[in-house]
Design goal:
- This protein is α+β, with helices and mostly antiparallel strands.
- It folds into two domains: 1-77 and 405-453, no CATH class; 80-225 and 311-359, no CATH class.
- The chain is built from 13 helices and twelve strands.
- It has helices spanning 10-19, 27-43, 49-60, 65-72, 79-92, 179-190, 210-217, 325-328, 338-342, 347-359, 370-393, 405-431, 436-452, and strands at residues 103-113, 123-126, 136-155, 158-173, 199-203, 222-228, 234-235, 254-255, 269-271, 274-283, 290-297, 303-308.
- Strands 1, 2, 3, 4, 5, 6, 7, 8, 9, 10, 11 and 12 form a twelve-stranded mixed beta sheet that branches.
- Strand 10 and strand 11 form a beta hairpin.
- It comes from Mitsuokella multacida DSM 20544.
Length: 453
């Protein structure tokens, strides 16, 4: 496509890596989509396709703008296949020594404000995070999945386990299917890949509903830890009916949250300033399954309710190796409360939202159709995810394991611009009589370094 495409260049290596996400497509389509990702790295942003084309792609490839639009809408490339490819790459960085450690999945939704009214699926949404009296806005809602995988990290000369939160992808919520249905769809895409792993699903109280829970309970290797609404019906375990006539009850006496001890002296454990109480219960949303319930009490007196299907004593996890002090410092007597500590790892999905919106311009898309919007978001997400994965795939990039993915993107952007300069310099030096073309190439390098700075 250009003089950048050489066997030893960074661009060529990135083309190979990015093309592997679209194996079902033809080779030209794979390269077009890979070039879109390279353009995002080079410009360190994800503006519109037209902007990527004008500022970078038109100068480095021979393809037209319409070629990139057609590649985005190619039927051989599906968003599900991109998400599954990312999930496989995330699993591949797990060391052999950590194959028995649990894989954590987090599902949540986020929203993106849009000024226009002509986008597919745009509507009036509510943002609970705003407290300025303007909580309603025009935009899109998306459901996403994040996979947290364990890797070995050296800290003070000791090998410790760190969980890397890799964003897998997005599905747009446009009214045709509920967010619960979309969450089930994402779960069905990755669970076949994880059938031989111990998997724990983390989600907040909005997703603690029977539709998602019923699907999750079908997978024998999948457990759940979730926050729940305070008014969720919880019951004591049924008492034995041996020697009495009639069918034994499924549930015991209904419990109110206020009936679970809230006095500090009744809480055997304290975590992050919260007093925590534990009890085995049954609920309607989990069916006949006995679940662990945790009630936390804050200093202000407010209570929160959590459920877990994880049996703490059956958890295959190397606790002493954990990098997080919260996870590492747990005695055998307090293992009952360990699932509540694991719930804190759900915050990785929120961090991914922040990074993608703040540094990757996730909401800057200008395409209007639902298919194109989802494809562009999943491509942007793939670029961000690979910046987290590559330091563990390539030993040459291992110095970026302790740094944010934006720093690796910045380093790759600088390298891409240098290769642009030298490729242009060699080409023009061989064909130009005067120095105007060489001066123009130097201007391109100066502009690239300015953009990187």
């Amino acid at each position: 496509m250009s003089q950048l495409y050489t066997s030893q260049s960074t661009v060529d290596k990135l083309l190979t890596i990015f093309s592997s996400l679209f194996l079902a497509a033809t080779r030209p389509t794979r390269h077009l989509l890979a070039w879109l990702l390279i353009a995002q790295l080079a410009l360190e942003s994800a503006p519109s396709v037209r902007c990527l084309f004008r500022q970078f792609l038109s100068k480095q490839t021979d393809a037209s703008l319409n070629s990139y639009y057609r590649a985005l809408s190619n039927g051989l490339v599906t968003d599900a296949s991109i998400r599954q490819a990312l999930a496989l790459r995330a699993l591949a960085i797990v060391p052999e020594a950590l194959r028995q450690e649990p894989i954590l999945l987090s599902v949540d939704d986020t929203s993106i404000a849009k000024w226009g009214k002509h986008f597919d699926g745009v509507g009036i949404l509510y943002d609970h995070a705003k407290h300025d009296g303007k909580s309603y806005f025009n935009g899109h809602a998306f459901v996403s999945l994040t996979m947290s995988v364990p890797v070995l990290h050296e800290n003070a000369g000791k090998q410790q386990i760190r969980y890397i939160a890799v964003p897998i992808g997005y599905v747009m919520s446009n009214g045709e299917a509920s967010k619960l249905t979309l969450a089930c769809q994402l779960l069905d895409e990755v669970m076949p890949i994880l059938e031989k792993r111990q998997v724990i699903l983390l989600f907040d109280s909005w997703y603690a509903k029977r539709e998602l829970l019923a699907l999750a309970l079908r997978y024998p290797n999948l457990n759940m830890i979730c926050n729940a609404r305070r008014d969720t019906a919880i019951f004591e375990l049924p008492t034995s009916t041996a020697g009495r006539r009639g069918r034994p009850p499924k549930y015991g006496r209904r419990l109110k949250l206020d009936e679970i001890p809230v006095a500090p002296e009744n809480y055997p454990y304290k975590m992050d300033g919260y007093l925590v109480s534990h009890r085995l219960v049954k609920t309607h949303i989990f069916g006949d399954r006995t679940v662990h319930t945790y009630v936390t009490l804050s200093k202000s007196g407010s209570c929160r309710l959590f459920f877990s299907t994880v049996d703490p004593m059956a958890l295959h996890m190397s606790i002493a190796w954990q990098e997080s002090k919260t996870l590492r410092d747990t005695s055998s007597k307090l293992m009952t409360f360990y699932p509540l500590k694991l719930y804190k790892l759900r915050w990785g999905i929120e961090t991914n939202y922040y990074e993608q919106k703040m540094f990757w311009e996730l909401g800057s898309y200008k395409v209007r159709t639902k298919t194109a919007i989802e494809r562009l978001l999943n491509l942007t997400n793939a670029g961000h995810a690979l910046m987290k994965i590559l330091p563990y795939e390539d030993e040459k990039l291992s110095t970026y394991r302790d740094k944010s993915p934006q720093e690796l993107r910045h380093a790759l952007s600088q390298q891409i611009h240098k290769e642009v300069f030298f490729a242009t310099l060699v080409s023009k030096a061989q064909s130009s009589i005067n120095s105007s073309a060489l001066l123009k190439a130097l201007q391109v390098l100066a502009w690239g370094d300015g953009q990187a700075a």
